[in-house]
Design goal:
- The chain is mainly alpha-helical and 120 residues long.
- The protein folds into two domains: 66 residues, Arc Repressor Mutant, subunit A (Orthogonal Bundle); 42 residues.
- It is 63% helix and 7% strand.
- It is built from five helices and two strands.
- The chain has a two-stranded antiparallel ribbon.
- A hairpin with a 3-residue loop joins β1 and β2.
- The longest helix is centred in the last third of the chain and has 28 residues.
Length: 120
């Protein structure tokens, strides 16, 4: 896995797991790879993955069954969508809209660009 410098690695791993949940690769009540399995797969320290899982558990995205491992929470998808939507609206959207205004993209042009994107 390629990591960016602008965000903690454990948060990037959490985002990746969130992406897998949203894509349906990881399903509600489905098992999540063990700490050691995921650490070996993405070539990071097991402590980093353990920190990721702790973070996801605190958010209610995964839960643990004693002796069995970690599993995706039944409402993980809704939790992820709500959190990402909130993050988008609070930070990135304001910057994005400011850039659109700065370069003169009209609401109509934006609507067409978005429609074209969805139709790809």
């Amino acid at each position: 896995m390629n990591f960016k410098d602008n965000k903690a690695i454990y948060l990037q791993i959490a985002d990746r797991i969130g992406d897998q949940i949203l894509a349906g690769t990881l399903t509600p009540d489905g098992k999540v790879p063990s700490v050691r399995e995921l650490a070996a797969e993405i070539e990071v320290n097991a402590n980093t993955v353990a920190r990721t899982y702790d973070h996801l558990q605190q958010q209610g995205i995964i839960y643990t069954k004693r002796g069995l491992g970690y599993f995706v929470s039944p409402d993980a998808r809704e939790t992820i969508v709500a959190r990402r939507r909130e993050q988008l609206m609070q930070g990135e959207m304001d910057y994005f809209l400011g850039q659109l205004k700065a370069v003169g993209i009209t609401p109509e042009e934006l609507q067409q660009l978005y429609s074209d994107y969805l139709n790809k």
